[in-house]
Amino acid sequence: MEAGGERFLRQRQVLFLFVFLGGSLAGSQSRRYSVAEEKERGFLISNLAKDLGLSVRKLAARGAQVVSKGNRQHFQLNHQTGDLLLHEKLDREELCGSAEPCILHFQILLQNPLQFITNELQVIDVNDHSPAFSENEMQLKILENTPPGTIIPLGNAEDLDVGRNSLQNYTITPNSHFHVLTRSRRDGRKYPELVLDKALDREEQPELRLMLTALDGGTPRRSGTVQVHILVLDINDNTPEFTQSLYEVQVLENSPVNSLIVTVSASDLDTGNLGTISYAFFHVSEEIRKTFQLNPVTGDIRLIKYLNFEAIQTYEVDIEAKDGGGLSGKSTVIVQVVDVNDNPPELTLSSITSPIPENSPETVVAVFSVSDLDSGDNGKMVCSIENDLPFILKPSVENFYTLVSEGELDREIRAEYNISITVTDMGTPRLKTQHNITVLVSDVNDNAPAFTQTSYTLSVRENNSPALHIGTVRATDRDAGANAQVTYSLLPPLDPHVPLASLVSINPDNGHLFALRSLDYEALRAFEFRVGAADRGSPALSSQALVRVLVADDNDNAPFVLYPLQNASAPCTELVPRAAEAGYLVTKVVAVDGDSGQNAWLSYQLLKATEPGLFGVWAHNGEVRTARLLSERDVAKHRLLVLVKDNGEPPLSASVTLHVLLVDGFSQPYLPAPEAEAAAAAPAAPLTVYLVVALASVSSLFLFSVLVFVAVRLCRRGGAASVGRCSVPEGPFPGHLVDVSGTGTLSQSYQYEVCLTGGSALNEFKFLKPILP
User: Fold this and answer.
1) What's the whole-number average pLDDT of the chain?
2) 3-state secondary structure of 744
3) Membrane-spanning residues where (predicted)?
4) pTM assigned to the model
């Protein structure tokens, strides 16, 4: 019981003077419940669901929670029925001591929205303690000459119950000498005093034994007894007297052990042994005996145990001074314990929410309460957090705080916050307590993937192998988890004529681009398409970038000769007059290359000639010119092999064969090239024979018509008086003797009529005149 009383005093004396600036969350109207002490665990106090006007499901959905002061939980809430039950058996004397009424404060914490409901539980006392004396027998020594009416103090009994269940009065065994009075102290405790009704006579009755009974007011009434042994002494007419009937001292609670508290002093006018005084505690509690030590000779009271203001603030110590004759005097020492700031604030965390989603405005992160066992300024507290954090503290009901996010959080800027909550009291020196909370910010898909470039330019050489990796696009997402997992895809092409699906593909996981087939620069030099990057959030976010693929040329096309044609049935023969000067343009080799750049730069080279040194080929334009003057010794038929080569790596080339016929003027009949003679001698295929025959027939008819027409016109123009008579030459004569162009190259641009002298055996030219301008 004494240990329970100590806990009671400790809890009873805790003073909460924390001043709140304002509550941001209003609590509902408080209720007071009552329950008798010593009820068993699980005893039904009330149905909270009915009291709060909520259904049991609603009460559970709002996460109802019972929060008691301190670390001890007295209550429990049944979420299935909404009943408020006792968590443990309550002992009113342990909880509140002698305080009446005994009130336990607790709060109902509701979430969504956050709400505090302050409630009280009154613990009703039951008469479960009997009055008890600290000793089994009291011994009194009374002088035989003590006058009637003298009051003799007796030791009091203690009853831990309160109200009517506490100690009410004292009775003593009926006798003719004494009766007992019941007195009350300032703190309400009752103590007995023995009153002498009739003078004592030691010779008649040297001692008396009486039974002192202490009664409480409970139903049924409980009592405690003690034996009072009275010894009648011979005359000792002076009793010890204290210099002060009441001593009042103040002692700091942090005073060291063995500190002198006060010195009491008493005197006795008697002499000898009857005047020798000794001091002793008079019916004090065990707590006082453990805390203070009294020197029986000097009267010094010293501290033998550390004081604790939060447990006991005042000690009332009765001191007895007794002389050698057995007479005694009484004095009281009141010790006031002065509070010092020796208790740091305490923080009790009720709930915490982590992680919290980003972009959520004003989210309740934590709910906690603060307390300080000290009193006065030592018990006033200030709660704070760091200023550079996006969180604020809001005071709530009583000693509760809520930690709320200030505005929306961005996980991409900061994903974790370490919050230090500092609680500082106002005492001297100031004491503080820090509590660290780690708050994680969960990701929300609020960032679309971003490409490292808005457009990409890739280059791939033509004739590539299929499935060739041609480049990579990359996009990053600032989100986390699935919200940051990027998937790549090809978007529909801007140009519907581009067969994108057959040209490229993309790896959806890493953005690698592959050419699906071999590309041809000559067919497709460049193409564009868009790629998309989408995350896996909900909803998914995406972005796109432009990719331009440039096909690099490869030297895969050999030069192609346009002129002279190489697939003709008869080779083309160029006629050169023997009177041509050096540099005479014989013909021009015309060639093209399907490649581009230096792969299409063509150069010409004379590889082989019938007579080296007679003809030359210009390297850059393919013109075939005479290198020197022609002579009679030069053979008439020449075969030239011209090489056309590009500038690629490796270079590709084509060759063309030219047939050149030297003539001594334009009257010399055309001589076919040796190749033509060989071709004519060789048997032709049936189809070729038919074509040659048809072509020869048509050509012969056409030439014959032309010659007739020319001859008729010449005959008409010349008349009969003409000296030289114009006639159609006899015998075969080619219809395409000479072609002359402005540059000297022989082509079929003009037709000339030829007049020969009538008797000329050499068929020399007489005149040469164009038929058509």
Assistant:
1) 81
2) coil
3) 689-712
4) 0.49
